[in-house]
Amino acid sequence: MADPILELEGLTKVYSGGLKALDSVDLNIRKGEIFALLGPNGAGKTTLIGAVCGLVRPTSGTMRAFGHDLAKDWRKARRRIGLVPQELATDMFEPVEHAIAYSRGLFGLPPDKARLEEVLRSLSLWDKRKEQIRALSGGMKRRVLIAKALAHEPDLLFLDEPTAGVDVELRKDMWRQIDAMRARGVTIILTTHYIEEAEEMADRVGIINKGHLLMVDEKDAMMKRLGRTEAHITLAKPMSEIPAIIARFPVELEREGTALCYRGGDGTGKGKAEVAELTKTLTTAGIDYVAIDTHESSLEDIFVSLLGKQEAAV
Ligand SMILES: Nc1ncnc2c1ncn2[C@@H]1O[C@H](COP(=O)(O)OP(=O)(O)OP(=O)(O)O)[C@@H](O)[C@H]1O
C-alpha cells in the first residue's frame, strides 16, 4: 500500500468486564485520505480511536503511526495526531481563543498568533473568540472542538461523530471544513452513523460491527461491487408466469403476479440501462404496465445488508 501512515495489526480490546470491543482489527490508513469508519452503536469505533489516541490501552495487537510503534514511541507519533471527540471536555468558562491556544501548548508548541487566527477564521469562530465556551450554541461548541484538535497542526485527524446532532446547515459546513483540511494534506479518519456522510466525503469506507472490521474498500469500488438496482414494475394485468421474452432479465413476479421486480446491475448505472431495455421489451411484446419504481442501492443498503448477514452468521 502506498504510504500507510497508520498501521493497525491484530488490534484487540477486551474491557475489564470481559466485553471484546475490538477483535483482531487489521487496518492501514493511507496518507491524505478520508477514511470513514461506519458502524452501529457499540460497534467499537470510539474504542479504536481511543486506542490510537492513547486513551484506551489495547489488550493485544500492534499500532504504528508515522513509522513509530505507538506502544514504545507514543509521544513522537502523538504530536502528529489530533482528535475531535464526541463531547467537549474543556473548561466551559474559558474564552474560545484561550482554550485553543492552550491545546496547542499541551503539545509543547510555541504560541502562534497567525495560526490561531487562521484556525479561528476557518471555522467561523473569529467573531466569537472572546466569548466563553458555555455561551456558544451547540454547533459552535463543535467548532471549538475541531479548532482545539487543529491547534497543534496534526497530520492525522480523528473525528468521532463530527456531525452527530448538528443541523443540516452545520453538517454541510463541517463537510466543507473537512474537505479543506484534506486539501491541506491532513489525513482524516471519521466515525459516523450518517451513511450519507461517508457516501459524500470518504475515499474509503470501513464497516465495523461488534468489534469486527467486516469490510474495507474504496467507496466507489464498494458501491460497484455491492450496489444494485431494484425496479418494481406494476403491471396493467397480472401474470401467472414470467414470459419467455423477458426470461433473460433478472426478474421475479411479486404481489400475486401484479408486479415484476427487477434486481440487478452493479451500482454503475448498468442496472438502469437494463431496466430501460426491459420496459422496451415489455412494450414491444404488448405487455402494459402502469408504474415503475426504481431504486439504486446506496451505501446505506450495503451497510444494512452486510450487518444483516453478520447477524445471520452468528
Ligand atoms: N470503558 C468501558 N468499559 C467497558 N465496556 C466499554 C467501555 N467503553 C466502551 N465499552 C463497550 O465497548 C463496546 C464498544 O463501544 P464503543 O464506544 O467503542 O462503540 P462505538 O462504535 O463508538 O459506539 P457509538 O456509536 O455508540 O459511539 C460497547 O459495547 C461498549 O458498551
From TrEMBL:
TM annotation in the entry: none
Domain ABC transporter: 6-235
Keywords, in A-Z order: ATP-binding, Nucleotide-binding, Transport
GO molecular function: ATP binding; ATP hydrolysis activity
Pfam families, per the entry: ABC_tran (PF00005)
InterPro entries: AAA+_ATPase, ABC_transporter-like_ATP-bd, ABC_transporter-like_CS, ABC_transporter_ATP-binding, P-loop_NTPase
SMART domains: AAA
Protein name from the UniProt record: ATP-binding cassette domain-containing protein
